[in-house]
Description:
Elements: E1 4-8, H1 12-23, E2 27-31, H2 35-44, E3 60-62, H3 65-69, E4 74-77, H4 84-91, E5 100-103, H5 116-123, E6 132-136, H6 141-144, E7 150-155, H7 159-169, E8 174-179, H8 182-204, H9 209-229, H10 240-251, H11 256-265, H12 270-275, H13 283-297, H14 302-312, H15 317-325, H16 334-339
Parallel strand pairs: 1-2, 1-4, 2-3, 4-5, 5-6, 7-8
Antiparallel strand pairs: 6-7
Amino acid sequence: MKEKIAVIGGGSWGTALAVVLNNNGYNVYLRDISEKRVKEINEEHVNSYLSGIELPKELIATTSLEEAVKGAKAVVVVVPSHIVRTVSKELKGLLDKDTVIVTASKGIEEESHLRMSEVIKEELDDKFSDKIVALSGPSHAEEVILNHPTTVVVANKNKELAQQVQNMFMSDSFRVYTNPDIIGVELGGAVKNIIAIAAGISDGLDFGDNALAALITRGITEIKRLGVAMGAESVTFSGLTGLGDLIVTCASEHSRNRRLGFKIGSGKSLEEALSEMEMVAEGVRTAKAVYNLSHKLDIEMPIVDQMYKILFENKDPKLVVSDLMLRGAKYEIESIAMEKEW
Ligand SMILES: NC(=O)c1ccc[n+]([C@@H]2O[C@H](COP(=O)([O-])OP(=O)(O)OC[C@H]3O[C@@H](n4cnc5c(N)ncnc54)[C@H](O)[C@@H]3O)[C@@H](O)[C@H]2O)c1
Ligand SMILES: O=P(O)(O)OC[C@H](O)CO
């Protein structure tokens, strides 16, 4: 008999992950709060967020959380990050004691500044504390659903647990690595969304490729600085969930965060840009969380600072450029200068 897995959140990413799991031989239940989405998946076998691509007929969508998770060997949480706490509260008491929880949402909670695995851990019973695995990496749903080659990472300090989740998702088009550094994996996937909005703004202003490369390389420097201060391994940010995810989100036509930035760079206000977005652009809320967190920890994040000002203080994106370019002169890589007493 097929083992059951529940995916919570039937948006573009939840649906793509559900299809990966279905193709790997699991009995997949996809829970979404939207009756319209559940109906189109069950009756038309499509998700309108994914350009009408045909979904496997075996995929079962439901609005009932209880029906989705009952008896499931694993529960994959893929709702927008600001909804993860609500879903986790609802999951409490519904899970079998051996259930593994996978978080595939990318964000930092606005008020608490917690990562998604920490939010889930706070809400579930203690017996699940060590059973939460993060899945992240450069992976647009629009390409995963077409079986285009994709690589991701699953992270938990328990190697066997990470490998269990690796085996669950691994396929010939979806390659899964493991990493014990869950802090780095989650932070890389969340903070890159802010830089992707900046990349979209830059493209909206028609600044070209030099500016994009600058945002990617200086962006990863900022992400790493914050990550290391929060206990992550520096080298994780050179991997799939750091540089890899930053590149894809800053450059891809599929990126929701880049798309939102492009609208703002083309002269729209945040409200106008958001009203034109169907799917979630996580970088907006994450910008607020990371701006406050970096100031609390005294971590220098100039791109994040300027993004906060554009998004929440109505600063003109054109004025941001000179403020970034004319900051005090710096070393490129401070650790080299220090090491060489330069
Ligand atoms: N889209 C991608 O390619 C992609 C890739 C990797 C990671 N992610 C991350 O995955 C998360 C989800 O993104 P998405 O693009 O799928 O979002 P989306 O906007 O496409 O869909 C979100 C879905 O969540 C549903 N939802 C809302 N509240 C719910 C609840 N309480 N229970 C169940 N479902 C609920 C909505 O009805 C909607 O269908 C985000 O954190 C995003 O950063 C997305
Ligand atoms: O489309 P975005 O900008 O939400 O990014 C989606 C994924 O995080 C890409 O890996």
